[in-house]
Every structure is written in structure tokens, then in C-alpha cells.
């Protein structure tokens, strides 16, 4: 159980040079959730993915180290999002127009493994949040946010009263929810600044949003 949880909570990174296969994989009962992606080159080839051209040719072509493709995130979402695993050969043809022909490029992908079945619960500031699982099952916390998100929360409408529309979130919410609830059949916690501290300006209404699975 502890091994499964650490795999689910982990942020994965994978990379592949042009001409190599990139391979993303998640554990049983989870699927790939792409967080970010980069395709291009921003560091010289002696630091990452050495040039595949002969040395004499490589010296004639000046390497572009400010080269990136804007379609890499969408391509990774198309290829891998919500799958258990995915694998494909990395080359510039995958991503449309090559912004820097003659420069060897690489793909870096950041992803998480999301449980196939998960629940989401919200508590408004100063309300109690209760989580519970059926008999013989225990709670596994996937993510936790305490504060205010850009889009707000439908369950907890904000009284704006001239407050700026800002995003502010507690940096310790996930660790606290793991400590209180991980591996237990049920748990409860108040969505309060006493528990989580105040990541926002005074007077800004906050909420606690927890995603978990049993």
C-alpha cells in the first residue's frame, strides 16, 4: 500500500533525444496525467543529447539553443493522457513544423499517475471536512488545496467586496492531509487557518479541496 501511494503521489519526469523512444508508464489502477511538456533545445548538445551529425558537419551548422515547439503539450495529451502506458519515437515530424532544422532536439515530459477511481470533496472555510471509505478499505490522498483558486469554488461562493481575484494556496495542505488521513478508514479536519495557516490576504474566503481514493 505504501509503495502504491508513493508511486501515485510522485511527479515523474521522462526525456528522450531525437531518434529515441519515450516511454511513460503508470502502476495498476492509475492512468497518466500530463503536467507539462517541452520539445526543442535550450541547452547545448554537450550537456544533453549530443549531436548525431558528424563532427565536421556539426561545426558548420550553428546549434540553436533557443528552440522550442509550442505543440508539444497538446501532442503529449493526444498520445498519452488517461492511458496506463504510451510509447513513441521522438522526431520533429511529430510536432509539425521544425523550428530549427539541423539542430538535434529532445523531449522532456512531466506527468503524474492519477487513480482511475477518485473522489473530490470540498469544505468552505471553518467547515469540517469528513472523508471515509467502506469497510476493509482505507483512504489514499491524491491532492489537497487550501486557499483560493483562480476559478473559485461553486460550493463556496466568495464575497469579493473589492478583493483582487488572486490565487493563493497553502504549501503544506497535501502533507497535512496525508498525515491526518492516509491509510485510515475515516478522518475529519476543519478547513481553517488554525490547521493550514493563512496563505492569502486577511479577509479572503478560502476553501479546502481534497481528491482521494479508497
Automatic annotation (TrEMBL):
InterPro entries: Lectin_gal-bd_dom (IPR000922), Lectin_gal-bd_sf (IPR043159)
Transmembrane spans: none
Gene3D superfamilies xref list: 2.60.120.740
One Pfam family, short name: SUEL_Lectin
Keywords in alphabetical order: Lectin, Repeat
A molecular function (GO) term: carbohydrate binding
SUEL-type lectin domain residues: 16-114, 123-214
Name assigned to this protein: EVA1C protein
Organism name: Corythaixoides concolor
Amino acid at each position: 500500500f505504501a509503495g502504491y501511494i508513493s508511486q501515485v503521489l510522485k511527479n515523474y519526469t521522462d526525456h528522450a533525444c531525437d531518434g529515441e523512444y519515450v516511454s511513460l508508464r503508470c502502476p495498476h489502477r492509475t492512468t497518466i496525467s500530463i503536467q507539462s511538456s517541452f520539445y526543442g533545445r535550450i541547452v547545448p548538445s554537450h550537456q544533453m543529447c549530443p549531436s548525431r551529425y558528424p563532427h565536421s558537419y556539426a561545426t558548420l551548422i550553428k546549434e540553436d539553443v533557443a528552440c522550442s515547439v509550442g505543440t508539444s503539450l497538446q501532442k503529449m495529451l493526444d498520445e498519452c493522457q488517461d492511458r496506463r502506458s504510451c510509447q513513441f519515437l521522438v522526431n520533429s515530424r511529430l510536432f509539425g513544423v521544425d523550428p530549427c532544422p539541423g539542430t538535434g532536439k529532445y523531449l522532456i515530459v512531466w506527468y503524474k499517475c492519477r487513480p482511475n477511481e477518485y473522489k473530490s470533496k470540498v469544505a468552505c472555510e471553518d467547515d469540517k471536512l469528513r472523508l471515509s471509505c467502506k469497510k476493509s478499505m482505507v483512504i489514499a490522498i491524491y491532492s489537497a488545496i487550501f486557499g483560493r483558486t483562480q476559478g473559485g469554488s461553486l460550493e463556496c461562493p466568495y464575497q469579493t467586496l473589492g478583493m483582487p481575484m488572486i490565487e493563493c494556496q497553502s504549501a503544506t495542505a497535501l502533507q497535512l492531509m496525508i498525515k491526518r488521513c492516509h491509510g485510515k478508514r475515516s478522518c475529519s479536519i476543519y478547513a481553517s487557518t488554525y490547521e493550514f495557516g493563512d496563505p492569502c490576504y486577511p479577509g479572503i474566503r478560502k476553501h479546502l479541496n481534497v481528491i482521494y481514493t479508497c
